[in-house]
Design goal:
Elements: H1 24-32, E1 42-43, H2 46-52, E2 72-77, E3 84-89, H3 98-109, E4 116-117, E5 119-125, E6 128-134, H4 141-146, H5 155-174, E7 188-190, E8 196-199, H6 222-227, H7 232-248, H8 254-262, H9 280-293, H10 304-314, H11 322-325, H12 342-348, H13 352-362, H14 368-379, H15 384-398, H16 402-415, H17 421-433, H18 437-450, H19 455-467, H20 471-490
Parallel strand pairs: 1-5, 4-8
Antiparallel strand pairs: 2-3, 3-6, 5-6, 7-8
């Protein structure tokens, strides 16, 4: 994770904002992948959608606002191809003019982006007005921010959410769809890979003449309260409110947040679960970016391109898959069908001798950046004694003297500022060899923190979990390790 910061001291004046460059290669790489394997927009028959949703059964409602919401979202499955879909059913009086509804839906349906939960079609039969979109299986940002069960959303994942949303808005703007109605944490969905996507439903109003905002007035752009119209600057204001959600893990009214920022009492904004997982600079920039988006005057807010530039430079753990950052196992991915590597196999059958041989042969090839830092500190005569501890640990590890190896590796890890995922992995195995699976699991998890896309860390976690009798969790962790191996093979 990021640098530890126990005493945040943010500097929030505009003159101190860093100047960032949005690298052209990053934009091109994203644009190259914009082609998606999706069908063209089409009109669905009402009976087809009834069959897909068991006649709009209450059991198929997936919108978090519940059955009594004016416009309800259902989950369904098409008979023809088995594709899962999300169906938004409007109130009967929402769009009396079917042609107007169809034209609006067709315009939104022309968009195709991996940053959107794309619109696949619509239905206009009788009084029915329905939109059909891609189904996102891993729920909403609201669920993962405010109602999490196992762990809070990681800092790196929160930054990724912000970037992907900015990319989605930028894409929509480039296609002439600058306006997004009621941007909030319910509109952000997670696909099968746990990548965040922006719901296409917000590109249409809730009704022809209805309100564009359904949330509490405290979160509504001030100019909308005066004119009742949404502008591109209004969307940026709502984006700023979303940044506050990501920072705080709470739904804080923008006016209250701005008062805290102006009063230099912004520590109250930061989610306590994030303490120690981000740097002063990163936290300062995100708070400042949110405050700029929430300026009362629309012309004082940044545009989407500016947001994209700032957020691109803040990204952490870029190579880690989203499902790994969110600790969610992918249910249907090709990596799960790929045979495990020798290390994965050894961990799956708890062959500790084989694991030892593999780790010994692998050496420190995954610690290149760590090695450079150690070399510098050696040159500065800062950690010679600490480095000797690691060498003694390596010697004991090679000779299978695991008690001594644990002692020496512990001296190394506690003796300097540089952490080594390889040392943590080796000490994890030493703990397994010493019948201390809980300590082994802790080291393997710490190795993952240091190197989030390292399959070895996941495999060793699985071995520790198997030893602890947590077989189901162990198997899921093996899948995560094999997923990362699969990604490496493709590169």
């Amino acid at each position: 994770m990021g640098a530890r910061c126990s005493n945040l001291c943010f500097c929030l004046w505009p003159s101190n904002i860093k100047s960032h460059v949005l690298y052209t290669s990053d934009i091109e790489k994203w644009a190259e992948n914009e082609q998606l394997n999706l069908p063209a927009f089409r009109e669905y028959g009402l009976e087809e959608l009834k069959a897909a949703t068991s006649t709009f059964s209450v059991n198929n409602i997936v919108s978090e606002h519940g059955e009594k919401a004016p416009n309800v979202v259902f989950k369904g499955q098409l008979d023809g191809n088995g594709r899962w879909i999300a169906i938004k059913r409007f109130h009967s009086s929402a769009w009396p003019d079917s042609r107007q509804f169809l034209d609006e839906a067709k315009a939104v349906g022309q968009l195709r982006s991996k940053r959107l939960a794309n619109l696949l079609g619509c239905c206009c039969e009788g009084d029915e007005r329905l939109l059909v979109a891609e189904f996102m299986p891993h729920e909403t940002l609201s669920k993962h921010l405010f109602h999490w069960d196992n762990q809070p959303l990681k800092w790196a994942m929160r930054l990724r959410v912000a970037l992907y949303l900015a990319q989605a808005l930028d894409y929509c703007s480039s296609k002439g769809r600058e306006l997004y109605h009621d941007l909030n944490s319910y509109r952000v969905l997670f696909d099968q890979d746990c990548d965040p996507r922006l719901s296409c439903f917000g590109l249409m109003k809730n009704s022809r003449d209805g309100k564009s905002y359904s949330t509490n007035l405290a979160f509504t752009p001030p100019e909308y309260l005066k004119t009742g119209k949404v502008t591109p600057e209004s969307v940026v204001y709502s984006f700023g409110a979303l940044l506050l959600d990501l920072l705080s893990g709470k739904h804080i009214p923008p006016s209250h947040a701005l008062d805290l920022i102006r009063g230099k009492n912004f520590l109250m904004l930061i989610d306590s679960c994030l303490e120690g997982h981000f740097s002063n600079d990163d936290g300062s920039e995100l708070v400042q970016l949110a405050s700029r988006c929430l300026q009362h005057e629309p012309h004082d807010r940044p545009n989407v391109k500016s947001l994209l530039t700032s957020l691109t430079s803040l990204q952490k753990e870029k190579d880690a898959p989203s499902h790994v950052l969110m600790s969610i196992a992918r249910e249907t991915t090709s990596p799960s069908q790929v045979p495990l590597t020798p290390l994965g196999e050894a961990c799956s059958r708890l062959d500790l001798t084989a694991i030892h041989d593999i780790l010994e042969k692998a050496g420190y090839k995954e610690d290149e950046g760590i090695a450079n830092e150690l070399s510098f500190q050696m040159w500065a005569n800062q950690i010679q004694e600490t480095l000797n501890s690691r060498k003694s640990g390596d010697s004991a590890f090679r000779d299978k003297n695991f008690t001594t190896a644990i002692k020496c590796y512990t001296e190394f890890l506690e003796g300097g500022n540089v952490k080594s995922p390889t040392v943590l992995a080796r000490r994890s195995l030493c703990y397994l060899m010493s019948d201390k699976p809980q300590e082994a699991l802790a080291d393997a998890m710490q190795a993952q923190v240091q190197f989030s896309n390292w399959p070895t860390a996941f495999y060793l976690q699985a071995a520790a979990l198997f030893t602890l009798g947590m077989d189901s969790d162990a198997r899921e962790t093996l899948k995560d390790g094999s997923s990362l191996d699969f990604r490496r093979m493709k590169q």
